[in-house]
Design a protein that fits this description.
The complex is a heterodimer of chains A (about 250) and B (about 250). By secondary structure, chain A is an all-alpha fold. Chain A has one domain: MetI-like fold. In chain A, about 80% of the residues lie in helices and about 0% in strands. In chain A, helix 7 packs antiparallel against helix 9 and helix 9 runs parallel beside helix 10. In chain A, about 35% of the residues are buried. In chain B, strands 6-7-8-3-9-10 form a 6-stranded mixed sheet, sandwiched between helices. In chain B, helix 3 crosses helix 4, helix 3 packs parallel to helix 5 and helix 4 crosses helix 5. Chain B has 9 helices and 10 strands. Chain B is about 35% helix and about 25% strand. Chain B has 2 domains: about 160 residues, Rossmann fold (3-Layer(aba) Sandwich), CATH 3.40.50.300; about 70 residues, no CATH class. The longest helix of chain B has 16 residues. Classes of the chains: A mainly alpha (about 250), B alpha/beta (about 250). At the A-B interface, helix 6, helix 7 and helix 10 of A face helix 2, strand 6, helix 3, helix 4 and helix 5 of B.
Chain lengths: ~250, ~250
């Protein structure tokens, strides 16, 4: 083994105070990452659900199209996707996208294909008796979907949505390449000034981990609120009102 | 109303799953106010007949007549009668499943109120009042706020019966309503069904509960291998002459 000093490199001095000094820059970067990923999350869920329905459609055209879409976009790395959108689409459409727009589009293209699969598996996991019960009661197909299938599928899908969102946040790190000032870009900028890769990238990694923990916590709570009967605080609070109404009804019926 | 008025008529109903024909031409008349009981060994097509009656299974051949409308592909080249939409039939035919099939994400009350409101329209409180009324009739009003997972199997099935009844059906179909229940819970469900039979509701019941069949059945139908082997009135269990049906009853009782 050799020691760095003997190679003529200055002894390592970890400047941990940099993390504190530039906390607001890192925090702003994090906020950018979160806002891009949240917008993309909402869009991906909506588009993913539409594709899930298309994929399960009786009409071959829809299901084949959806399955092509899923298999293509699931396979593209985020880095390639965002470069393709930011530089490629602007040529294609003759319109310059902002980095924020490009990031949202790139993430949505990729993750709507994942959400398609998540929603499809969730809808297919529902016991077929649920649909039959709805039909036997004379409910319309739309009503069965909205009031029977969707709420149950959402509950099944929630843990997967959570993990997908963590993936989305992490993929925003690749947007540094198109110049989005998110966590990695901030870190790169600081590092080019101070050359503290260990300190600065530890901080960046830490931020992603903290967010992952936070997302996990939030989605656990959402899941509890979607349990039947509801277990979470929000749902319990809402159902208290409902319960009161039912109690009044019980009194008036007896 | 004459006692012999036919409410539902199946003629020449055939059903094929893949390459296997499970119903080989079923002819059946359900008169208003009657209590038909279908029994027979598993795989004989009992449930399929029942599921054809509310078009959960569309027959491949044959027709189903109900309240002046005709459903199914018909027997000839073309069906002759006035055509009806399946949803209209289903709104007049209640069905109770072996697995209850309550909506797990809704309270017992909402399990009734949701279908009532989407079929009948009207306000939420109207639907809930009706739901409470129906739950009361099956003795479950105090569980109105409970979710299906908080109810026993017997209670769930009673909610399912109340749910079907809340839509004022002309005909009630029961697909082995007690087969998924613990033995001690069977009685409470049968009691509800007995009350319903006494109230004059037209019922078609697929069941293995021979004692119950003997009690309420005024049209007893023995099926085997996709055919109706023999039928009989309320004296069926005493005076049955068909050897195969006798064997089956003997082995189940």
């Amino acid at each position: 083994m050799f020691r760095l000093e003997e190679d003529g490199v200055a002894p390592i001095n970890f400047m941990w105070h940099l993390v504190w000094d530039f906390r607001w820059d890192l925090f702003k970067g994090l906020l950018t990452a979160i806002s891009v990923s949240i917008v993309a999350l909402i869009l991906s869920m909506v588009i993913g659900l539409i594709f899930a329905l298309a994929r399960m459609s009786r009409f071959k055209v829809f299901s084949i199209f959806a399955s092509f879409y899923v298999n293509i976009f699931r396979g593209i790395p985020a880095l390639v996707s965002v470069i393709w959108v930011y530089f490629g689409w602007s040529l294609l459409f003759g319109h310059n996208f902002t980095v924020f727009q490009a990031g949202v589009i790139a993430l949505t293209l990729l993750y709507s294909s994942f959400f398609c699969e998540i929603f499809r598996s969730a809808l297919q996991a529902i016991h077929k008796g649920q649909r039959e019960a709805g039909l036997a009661l004379g409910l319309t197909r739309g009503r069965i979907f909205r009031s029977v299938m969707l709420p149950q599928a959402t509950k099944i899908a929630i843990p997967n949505i959570g993990s997908m969102y963590i993936g989305m946040i992490k993929d925003t790190s690749t947007f540094a390449i198109i110049g989005m000032v998110e966590v990695v870009r901030v870190t790169q900028n600081l590092n080019s000034t101070y050359f503290q890769p260990f300190v600065l990238y530890t901080a960046a990694a830490g931020l992603y981990v903290i967010i992952a923990f936070l997302v996990d916590f939030i989605f656990r709570n959402v899941e509890l609120n979607f349990a039947y009967p509801p277990q979470g605080r929000i749902a319990k609070f809402l159902s208290r009102k409902k319960k009161k109404k039912i109690e009044e009804l019980m009194k008036s019926t007896l | 109303m004459p006692a012999s008025e036919v409410l539902m008529e199946l003629s020449g109903v055939r059903k094929t799953f893949g390459t296997i024909e499970v119903l080989h031409g079923i002819d059946l008349q359900i008169t208003k106010g009657s209590h038909a009981v279908i029994f027979g060994p598993s795989g004989s097509g009992k449930s399929t007949v029942l599921r054809c009656m509310n078009l959960l299974e569309e027959p491949d051949v044959g027709s189903i007549k109900f309240l002046g409308n005709e459903y199914g592909p018909g027997n000839g080249a073309k069906a002759e009668g006035k055509r009806g939409k399946p949803i209209e039939l289903r709104r007049k035919v209640g069905m109770v499943f072996q697995q209850f099939n309550l909506f797990p994400h809704l309270s017992a009350l909402d399990n009734l109120a949701l279908p009532y409101r989407s079929v009948r329209g009207g306000s939420l409180s109207e639907a809930q009042e009706r739901a409470a009324h129906e739950l009361n009739k099956v003795g479950l009003l105090k569980f109105a706020a409970n979710y299906p997972s908080q109810l026993s199997g017997g209670q769930q099935q009673r909610v399912a019966i109340a749910r079907a009844l809340s839509l004022d059906p002309e005909l009630m179909l029961f697909d082995e309503p007690t087969s998924a229940l613990d033995p001690e819970l069977v009685g409470e469900v049968l009691a509800v069904m007995r009350d319903l039979a006494e109230s004059g509701m037209t019922m078609v019941v697929v069941t293995h509960e021979m004692n119950f069949a003997r009690e309420i059945g005024d049209l007893n139908i023995f099926m085997e291998a996709g055919n109706i082997v023999t039928t009989g009135g309320s004296d069926f269990f005493e005076n049955c002459t068909n050897q195969r049906a006798k064997e089956f009853i003997g082995s189940v009782l």
